[in-house]
Amino acid sequence: MSTTTLPPDGFTPAPKLADVLPPRKERSKLGMFAYRHPTIAVGGFMVSLFVLMAIFAPLLWTVDPTALAPARRTRPPSELYWFGTDMLGRDVYSRVVYGARISLIVGFGVAICAASIGLFIGLISGFIRAVDAVVMRIMDGMMSIPSILLAIAMMALTRASVENVIIAITIADVPRVSRLVRGVVLTLREQPYVEAAIAAGTRTPMIIIKHILPNTLAPVIVQATFLCASAMIAEATLSFIGAGTPPIIPSWGNIMAEGRALWQVKPYIVFFPAVFLSITVLSVNLLGDGLRDALDPRMAKRI
Amino acid sequence: MFAYTVRRVIATIPVMGIVALFVFSLLYIAPGDPAAIIAGDQATPEDVERIRASLGLDRPFIIRFTEWLWRVLQGDLGVSIFTNLPVSHMIKQRLEPTFSLMLLTLTFALSCAIPMGVLAAWKHGTWIDRLVMLFAVLGFSVPVFVVGYVLAYTFALQLDWFPVQGYTPISNGIGGWVSNLTLPAVALGSAFIALIARITRATMLEVLNQDYVRTAKAKGVGQRAILFVHALKNAAVPIITIVGIGFAGLIGGAVVTESVFAIPGVGRLVVDAILRRDYPVIQGVVLMFSFTYVIVNLIVDLLYTVFDPRIRY
Amino acid sequence: MSSSAPLLEVQNLQTHFGTVDGVVRAVEGVSFHINAGETLGVVGESGCGKSVTAMSILRLISTPPGKMAGKILFKGTNLLELSEPEMQAIRGKDISMIFQEPMTSLNPVLTVGRQIGETVMLHEGVSARDAEQRAVEMLTLVGIPAPGRRVREYPHQLSGGMRQRVMIAMALACSPQLLVADEPTTALDVTIQAQILELMRDLKTRVGAAIMLITHDLGVVAEMAQRVIVMYAGRKVEEGTAEEIFLNPLHPYTRGLMGSMPKLGSSLHETGRSKLTEIQGQVPSLRKPIIGCAFAGRCPNVTDVCRQMAPAIELKAPNHLVACHYAPRVAVAA
Q1: Which of A2, A155, C128, C188 could bridge A243 with an S-S bond, Cβ 3.0-4.6 Å?
Q2: Exposed, middle or buried: residue B88 (CB in 10 Å: 0-12, 13-18, 19+)?
Q3: What secondary structure does DSSP assign to B171-209, as a single string?
Q4: Contacts of B306 (CB under 8 A, 6+ apart)
Q5: Mean pLDDT, residues A124-139 taken together
Q6: All chains having 3 or more CB pairs closer than 8 angstroms to chain B
Q7: Rounded to an integer, what distance in angstroms lies between the CA atom of residue B215 and that of residue B230?
Q8: Is the CB of residue A145 less than 8 Å from the CB of residue B286?
Q9: What is the residue-wise DSSP string for C45-104?
């Protein structure tokens, strides 16, 4: 009942209560961000590392990734050749570092293209019923074809190139994004503030841009991140089975495809690009997870 | 309930129609000249024309599509450019290995993934939860063929517990059949397990936050009953929905896994066809797998009624 | 007060939650008791900690983010010291709880009979067949027509009022001694509200249970409760019999609550007011420790003493506890 200072006469203070939980640790702003969103911090950091690696490839102690040297073929990893050499004598380390460029270009390319196209289609379908009926049927049909098979079929009909790989994977992924956006648009259309805007006489394009679009961005961004990851795997898979980027260009999938024949005796040719690919995809997935948790309004109330 | 079943079955017909239309149209929407690509770099103009005629690219779309569709409905998927054998025959020969692989993978994956997801949801926030989620993200991020190689290298090559590659038909004995398919099934299942474990955990977490779980706790129901009687049944619908959708990934992964482990299935057929630019085979396989996928999702739709009494009308 | 020990005695309960933004002190030092067979009303606005208090009694608070301190004595045993299995034996049997949202509080994939029967099977070890029979009896008791048919139906086939009756049936199936009712009628239509309250009163006499009735609706409290406690910002600010609280509210917050009730038949002529009176200001954030009286920011009579020193709960009138430094003086002035 007693406190350190005497209470004024006639007043009884409430009893002091102990803290039930230990006090919170003080953290810097950056530290607070990393504490609340560890996956974004780790994923974002790793992805940035790989992007930097891809951009500054020539400066990272690499040699020409396409330089042939049959005399030095299939050497195991050593001081000179950090990841060894492949069956044509090419330095595996350099190929892996340069390979990052292709994988990242395909990943980001697909993410941006599929997200934009899907967003556009989803917005229109969500608003115009006639378009919705036709387009969504087509999207359903497209989604019924496993994406890898769709990409394989398209690659079988076109010249192998990075652009065509991006196009093929994008086409396979667009239906999913457009369905997602359409769903969001349909829900948003029922919201009171949209109805209010319509009642106030706002024209449809204005409504889409001002009210609907901003609310679709969060899920689309999250989806785009995951698309990037799956596109990188898709490119590697396609290259691996011979339906991807042309063999001249070093991509992680290509390097692994070439190393296939020797994997039992020279596993390092498959191993190193596999590790790099996995870690990159993992980082992008972590980033996507983190973004989704951060942008999900329900998580904001999390206790 | 019967009406629901009939409606769902009928609803798949337009979807399959669109699928067929789309698969057929790929030939037409591909950039560039498909006939030239298929004929290859060394082809003469006559070769290209021959290919173009055999693909029917010189005739009007509608006519060609109707003819093709009619033949497909009768089971004729065209003829391979490379072997001149009927595509359906080639596929039929290789169905058993692929089907076995997918069945084994599905069983294995679901029996791992769902308990993992339930466990992670139950122990939400603890290290168990984080560990399970780490495994899930890893499974999601490492390509199926990489997992395949790692497994083959470690367990087949180094430890010699399993054969490195190949396939034993079930008629030759269950032991060999399982032994050959174990590593491929684990590899193929890795991404699928990751997907299902994640969705199970997410759905279970949502369900466990629902008011009716709070009511069950207030009645004194124990943790195990809450998880498996009250929660899991409610989580079933979203989970099996994702199982149905994830099946597509299983199909795609099978193609690669058969390559890594030299299993003579339909996936290998496609890979070989890619190298030879044998488009009719590719088209036939894509069609077959797509129809399978639609049927799988139809089964999922029908299974909903088992789990959720509200979806019966 | 009765001469025997109270059925439930809460002593200095604290329930805190650790969030990423800091510690939320949802319940901060609340003490009260409930005697066997009586109805205690717990009033306060949303966020004052009434529901958290109720959930703390049954230990339904998830303890990773939450943590409780203090004592909750049920028939002499401290519930906060029991193991989880021991607690499970008490929930649904000795202490039951019904919740606010009947639409979502029943499991959609299990039949009504199964959900009622579960309590009985769990606590009394009867067979499934007998449990279903008991479920039919309970459904009859709570006034649901055609109970034999209803027992096999699913919650989505019942209306909101019927679902709440099912909830009550589930809660009373094992004849508990204490029923905690968290806003049982708030989500229902007014006419259904009256029916449910009538049902609760009727069953209470039959089963002999004590009720802890949590609500923000003063009308419900007036109808059902013998004693009332008023909560604000996680603290108890006033306690007394229903008559005392309604006829002679002493705490400024309680007075504000009573004053803000629209009274049927009161006209401008009678009361001299043309608008509903409201309590100025907002509830203080529970994330920061509150210095001084929790109501200081909104009290019309606040002084420096109030801002620096939190008042203790004291007896200011017969059967009437108030946490306000100036309580008796305010009563005289009015």
Answers
A1: A155
A2: middle
A3: GG-HHHHHHHHHHHHHHHHHHHHHHHHHHHHHHHHHHHT
A4: none
A5: 85
A6: A, C
A7: 10
A8: yes
A9: -TTSSHHHHHHHHTT-S-TTTEEEEEEEEETTEEGGGS-HHHHHHHBTTTEEEE-S-TTT
CA of A50 vs chain B CAs: smallest distance (Å): 15
* Mutation to test the A interface, candidates C11, C325, C326, C329, most A Cβ within 10 Å: C325
Half-sphere exposure of B157 (CA within 13 A, CB side): 13
Cα–Cα distance measured from residue B218 to residue C168, given in angstroms and rounded to the nearest whole number:
12
A248 CB burial (10 A radius; 0-12, 13-18, 19+): exposed
CA dihedral C297, C299, C303, C305 (to 10 degrees): -70
- Bridge partners for C24 per DSSP: C17
pTM: 0.85
- Token pair, residue B1, equals 């309930």
In this predicted structure, the answer to whether residue A250 has a pLDDT above a threshold of 80 is yes
With a cut of 60, say whether residue B30 has pLDDT above it. yes
Alpha-carbon distance C84 to nearest alpha carbon in chain B (angstroms):
9
Find where tokens 């036709």 sit. A134
Cα separation, A50 vs A56, whole angstroms: 10
Burial C267-287 (b: 16+ CB within 10 A, else e): eeeeeeeeeeeebeeebbebe
Length of chain A: 303
Length in residues, chain B: 313
Report chain A residues touching chain C, CB-CB < 8 A: 1, 7-8, 11-15, 17-21, 23-24, 35-36, 302-303
Return the exposure string of A249-273: e unless at least 16 CB atoms fall within 10 Å of the residue's CB, then b.
bbbbbbbbbbbbeebeebbbbbbbb
Residue closest to C182 by CA, chosen among C207, C217, C232: C217
Helix, strand, coil % over all residues of chain A, rounded to 5: 70, 0, 30
Q: What is the pLDDT of residues B161-217, one digit of tens each?
A: 888 888 888 787 888 888 888 999 999 999 999 999 999 999 999 999 999 999 999
As a whole number, mean pLDDT of residues B58-64 equals 78
Instruction: Tokens 């509150």: give the residue.
Output: C290
pLDDT at C2 over 50: no
Nearest to B271 among A153, A236, A241 (CB): A241
Separation in Å, CA of C87 to nearest CA in chain A = 21
Q: May I ask the CATH class of domain A30-73+80-295?
A: mainly alpha
